[in-house]
């Protein structure tokens, strides 16, 4: 039942664009996948009936993107239709894991794309593909959805200065986020805010770009009181955001990203009053990276960890206020309670925050997420 509903959702959305009303992201495939994944398939079509009224048709292409011409089109939203057509071809030419492995390292330095919605949509699509569809092969709609997600990421690709020299190089993600510096002007959109990161004395690391940078890369907070991950200069062909593990370290990439998600969810309760919608992405972006890991080659796991941390730190810098407001977590909140509350609310960001909190699996994260969801008007 749930598998069939998801495939129906993708069929209903295949002719819609990734954005509407300008920069607003189409959350329908992401929120619907989360609802279905957590047992609310019976709510999805009615929810989609309401949400779909906002959506715009899939944009048409201007000029085809050739196999060797993609760098020039990267980050050009006027080529969104061309990117959609490009990845439609990619997904029919090669198996989807091969396409993902080829494009993930190209897109990862631009993890801020579409206010991180590019990577988030990819994460939901990959989870759908990794969930058994009830047949030997994944439904074509799931493969097409991954192609649309990658196309959106490519069209809105946005590099940023990576965190690499600040006091946030501490022992765990929570204390690290406590010391992330804030951008000085939080009045405008995310592109304006992220552009200010390079000017923060406590921030600059390696400027992200499609080619390897000549100097060091960012550190990632260790867990369990360890020191930060040391990062040396990248080698030829390596992603600028790659970080290196010490041989003695026993913490897995999965555990580290999970801790980043937990920290971001817990902080959402106290800091989300300033901008509850945008601060959700400090948790949902690393969640998307985490659920994509099983489909990626091992060589891409460390760069993915560093990019997950960079996204969370950047969203925190761009949207978090200086001080939190007191919040009393809701004790005894379970995963089913939280997702049911989010489903009743109906806001796409509320649904995705609940999804991230459940992924974190921590009792405190669930209790804090419930309070954070109270800020979303149904």
Describe the secondary-structure layout.
Elements: H1 2-13, E1 19-20, E2 24-25, H2 28-37, H3 41-51, H4 70-73, H5 80-93, H6 96-107, H7 117-130, H8 140-155, E3 161-163, H9 173-178, H10 190-195, E4 204-207, H11 253-271, H12 276-279, H13 281-292, H14 301-319, H15 335-345, H16 348-360, H17 363-373
Antiparallel strand pairs: 1-2, 3-4
Could you explain how this protein is built, in words?
It comes from Actinoplanes lobatus. GO terms for molecular function: oxidoreductase activity. This is DUF4243 domain-containing protein. Keywords: Oxidoreductase. There is one protein chain. The protein is 51% helix and 3% strand. By secondary structure, it is an all-alpha fold. The strands form two sheets. Strands 1-2 form a two-stranded antiparallel ribbon. Strands 3-4 form a two-stranded antiparallel sheet. Helix 2 (28-37) crosses helix 16 (348-360). The model is unreliable at 210-218 and 222-250 (pLDDT under 50).
